[in-house]
Amino acid sequence: MKTVDQCDFKDKKALIRVDFNVPLDKDFNITDDKRMRAALPTITKILNDGGSVILMSHLGRPKGGPEDKYSLKHILGDLSRMLDLEVKFADDCIGADAAEKAKDLEPGQVLLLENLRFYKEEEKGDKEFAGKLAKLGDVYVNDAFGTAHRAHASTSIIAEFFPTEKYFGYLMAEELKNAEKINNNADKPFTAIMGGAKVSDKILLIESLLDKVDNLIIGGGMAYTFAKAQGGEIGTSLLEADRMELCLELLEKAKAKGVNILLPVDTVIADKFDNEAQKKNVDSGQIPADWMGLDIGPKSVDLFTDVIKNSKTLLWNGPMGVFEMANFEQGTRAIAEAVVAATKENDAFSLIGGGDSAAAIAKFGLEDEVSYVSTGGGALLEYMEGKELPGVKAIND
Ligand code: AMP
């Protein structure tokens, strides 16, 4: 793998695609800076070599033109503090000002470019736009795992302008190494824990996992579509009616492949979607009309915990319930604790992927107790589905 370790950046201007798409509150304070912190080792290595750094990223989903709320200027102060230097800013990612600021950059200095997605050409993968960005630096580095599944101008097309001078940053290398451990070299028993709202988002992943895992645990909102497909009553719980047939097919496929699928056996139900709702425990498939399942129940926790604690490889994507509400977080918390226990006591390799599982594990303060928490949501899922990520291919080609 071609990483920044293979380059001496002395007197070079490194153009780094980072993923600084961090959540901001209404006063533009960063509420989770993990993605920024994760990019620091690559930046520091280049500065220590005697190079300079030009950072490019997207933030949020602007509609193709400048929007103040999506300006990267909001993160400039935090970035400067993290790097302990004054980061310069170009309020347009291309054009005369960006070109001038990039040209004037001295070794040891850092320039942050304005949001790439203020140009619709970014997401379109426009070659001319990529070429304009490419002119700003001597070397291209991709350290944005979170967007590696997109063939955008700055994540993929731009690499064509750097036939030899292109490298993976440390975060990308680390993400790929950890994902690869799960994809091809997983120690057995291998258990995947799938949760979250929708079956439809995870079908391809579940299908590809059936060839790899020994156990597949399914919880969260998507478990109710399985319960209904099996003839259960699910009240007003989340349902994707058009996926019921598919759920049954997945169960059949799992059986044929010898994969042990575990679905919740009980569930915590509520009379409304509210932390203060009335709640009670019932067996799966026995939810009264007008009630909804918002978490897995204690019997499911015991069942799942047992399998998790005996696993040697764990992949967790998606919460077991509405963990954002304190009264419905117990299932997700218990599963997080079981993953931690397997990591510590059974020497298991545990990979937590996807935005919501990462947010859950962070909420419980257990981020450092598992083997690796990925910064990628969609990118990790697509990698696990066996797809070649455009951002990775662009460097490897
Ligand atoms: P996803 O983005 O598909 O991983 O889904 C994560 C979201 O699913 C979180 O915001 C959870 O609150 C939500 N979720 C999990 N379980 C349930 C459930 N039983 N009912 C409604 N939403 C759920």
UniProtKB/TrEMBL annotation:
Single GO cellular component term: cytosol
One example of a Gene Ontology biological process annotation: gluconeogenesis
Transmembrane segments: none
UniProt-annotated binding residues for (2R)-3-phosphoglycerate: R35, R117, R150
Keyword Transferase: yes
CDD domains, per the entry: Phosphoglycerate_kinase (cd00318)
Localization per record: Cytoplasm
Pathway: Carbohydrate degradation; glycolysis; pyruvate from D-glyceraldehyde 3-phosphate: step 2/5
InterPro entries for the chain: Phosphoglycerate_kinase (IPR001576), Phosphoglycerate_kinase_N (IPR015824), Phosphoglycerate_kinase_sf (IPR036043)
Residues in the signal sequence: none
Keywords annotated in UniProt: ATP-binding, Cytoplasm, Glycolysis, Kinase, Nucleotide-binding, Transferase
The keyword Phosphoprotein is assigned to this record: no
Residues that hold substrate according to the record: D19, F20, N21, R35, H58, L59, G60, R61, R117, R150
GO molecular function ontology, one term from the record: ATP binding
Entry EC number(s): 2.7.2.3
SUPFAM superfamilies for this protein: Phosphoglycerate kinase
Record-stated family: Belongs to the phosphoglycerate kinase family.
Oligomer and partners: Monomer.
Entry protein name: Phosphoglycerate kinase
Organism in which the protein naturally occurs: Pedobacter westerhofensis
Taxonomic lineage: Bacteria, Pseudomonadati, Bacteroidota, Sphingobacteriia, Sphingobacteriales
Gene behind the chain: pgk
